């Protein structure tokens, strides 16, 4: 397993990490993702550690906390061998203070996550969404206090807009507070919006990217193609409304090229799709998911080899999307390409 620096921090993370959204299996979304219990999770983590994958990502909202609880049981007795990434900020109840990132919510949410995980510190805590109702200074001071108390080691964000991240970083630097080092984002061959604003920001500001849903919300598994509709047993029938939108015509073109390259390399469609992401600028770790051992082992096969330059170009071309025309300022910036050259690894 290759290890990479997490942005402008001293933390080294594996190129692949395991998402635990399949752990617990409670609620209309997460029960369709998976119902992995503690025993099954322990086996999956055994396999991960054998392959050098030691970063596990969760969130309080995953199965209403059950994901963190299952993960805590699965790592019991080997906390020193693993790194834990989790998230908070989304609603965890109906109360007025059961959501967001106000001081009380951050402190209580962190304490509850520590209890469910059975640990006294979290390696990386990320805010699951921007809270416009709470002053950014309040958020950052509270996170800094939690770091100084030893309960969190690094902090990051997820699903933030560029200006929200940049304003936060500016306040951190001006007030000498702990700085975000990670940005967990949706990024895949069928969803490349991350490249327009957030990728240049991440490279400039030293944010390491953790990629969620690298297979386009289950559409790049190799089970869906131009001639093969969504299988009856696919979770997409129940979960597609929760995920990012996709251009189906473009999806089939991308799958065609993935299958071609899979034939050339002897790799599966998911392995090729994940390997492409590992070549992208700012990417520190790609979060893979697995409902069973077979899926996990297949996804782990995305590392240890490289696509050729020609294969990368072919995937770049078939998945390329123009900026969101006719929106300003994208069309103007695109007209002056010499001022905004495309990013390379």
Summarize this structure briefly:
The protein is α/β, with parallel strands linked by helices.
Radius of gyration: 20 Å
State which percent range the strand residues make up.
5-15%
Task: Give the overall form.
Answer: globular
The CATH class label is Alpha Beta
Main attributes of the structure:
alpha/beta, TIM Barrel, eight-stranded parallel barrel, 10 strands, globular
Topology:
Blueprint: E1 3-5, E2 12-14, E3 16-19, H1 30-33, H2 38-50, E4 55-57, H3 66-74, E5 83-88, H4 103-117, E6 122-127, H5 136-148, E7 152-158, H6 162-175, E8 180-186, H7 198-205, E9 208-212, H8 236-239, H9 248-265, H10 269-278, E10 283-288, H11 293-300, H12 309-319, H13 330-335
Parallel strand pairs: 3-4, 3-10, 4-5, 5-6, 6-7, 7-8, 8-9, 9-10
Antiparallel strand pairs: 1-2
Helix pairs in contact: 2-3, 2-11, 3-4, 9-10, 9-12
